[in-house]
Write a structure and sequence with these properties.
- By secondary structure, the protein is α/β, with parallel strands linked by helices.
- It has a single domain, classed as Alpha/Beta hydrolase fold, catalytic domain (Rossmann fold, 3-Layer(aba) Sandwich), CATH 3.40.50.1820.
- Helix content is 31%, strand content 23%.
- It contains twelve helices and twelve strands.
- The strands form two sheets. Strands 1-2-5-7-6-8-9-10-12-11 form a ten-stranded mixed beta sheet, sandwiched between helices. Strands 3-4 form a two-stranded antiparallel sheet.
- The longest helix has 14 residues.
- It is globular.
- The protein starts with a helix and ends with a helix.
């Protein structure tokens, strides 16, 4: 079954509330689309909507969607711990579009990582970086607990019956940086977060990221552009690290090699790609996944499932 068939099955469920999880299979794996109680929205802080630069975003259109998509790649192996990549979209987007246009499922499946990809709905099609319930104390832990319960209710339930979360990677495009910073500060699972990837998203909160990556067991990748609004903060953070004598890698994407991505713990990568296309144009999401701390899927299991 090709990916377009998967979208045809699940896109209707991703544009409205559903009572039960919807899932479909493809050559890539299994995609679940459901609603979470612990999802970022709705949230009291946006009960009256939100205004940005003179434009009003009413709550009923932009802050009522509790959709979460979970993708389990073909060949996935369950166990006592489960690894995850949690991706946060930026302004003016929603789950169905970001999966489709940024090719997250295709890239993650191609990386061959034995982990679950989770994509929650943020402010839907709004100019807003607010992370809703995931900005609250322990909010991310509650979200991930609910995600694990969803997985334990599916075909993987036997293998995941006694599982807990293992390594977690937080990935964010553009305005997705803010919720990641809040998760690192007070989300409740900071000790499990091994990597952070920012796709042209370092607009602020550099101190939150810097506090977190003082842990030598972490990896931080900041992909930035000339005109996306992140260059000044990126230059300032690199200058601070130089003053402190903290080593890091600075280079151009996609010239950075697989070996360099694996070798270095702090990476600042400049790209000439347009801000809206940084996640997928050079398959940065796949390359970051391939070189991450995550283990590989079982190719034998994947072949048996075909």
């Amino acid at each position: 079954m090709r990916c377009w068939v998967l979208w045809a099955l699940l896109l209707p469920a991703m544009t409205r509330a559903v009572d039960q999880p919807r899932d479909a299979r493809s050559d890539f794996g299994r995609l679940i689309v459901t609603q979470f109680v612990s999802a970022p929205f709705p949230h009291p802080a946006r009960a009256q909507g939100h205004t940005w630069s003179g434009k009003f975003f009413p709550a009923d259109q932009h802050y009522q969607d509790s959709t979460v998509a979970l993708f389990i790649p073909r060949g996935f192996r369950g166990g006592r711990t489960v690894d995850a990549v949690v991706h946060f979209h930026g302004w003016g987007n929603h789950v169905a579009r970001v999966l489709r246009e940024h090719r997250l499922i295709e890239q993650f499946a191609a990386s061959g990582r034995n982990a679950v990809l989770i994509v929650p709905q943020g402010p839907r099609d709004a100019s807003d970086s607010f992370g809703g319930k995931l900005e609250e104390e322990g909010g991310f832990r509650r979200f991930m607990d609910e995600a694990l319960r969803v997985l334990q209710g599916g075909p993987e339930r036997r293998a995941l019956r006694k599982a807990s979360w293992g390594r977690i990677i937080l990935s964010g495009h553009s305005g997705g940086y803010r919720v990641i910073a809040c998760i690192l500060d007070r989300g409740g699972l900071t000790d499990r977060v091994r990597e952070v990837w920012l796709f042209d998203g370092l607009y602020a909160r550099s101190d939150s990221f810097a506090r977190w990556f003082r842990n030598p067991a972490t990896r931080f990748i900041n992909l930035y552009t000339e005109d996306g609004g992140t260059k000044d903060d990126t230059d300032a953070l690199m200058a601070e690290l130089r003053r402190e004598g903290v080593p890091f890698f600075a280079g151009n994407d996609p010239d950075v090699t697989t070996a360099q991505l694996r070798e270095h713990r702090l990476l600042f990568l400049f790209t000439a790609v347009n801000h809206h296309n940084v996640v997928h144009t050079h398959e940065a999401f796949r390359r970051f996944s391939e070189t991450s701390c995550l283990g590989k899927v079982s190719r034998r299991r994947a072949a048996l499932k075909r």
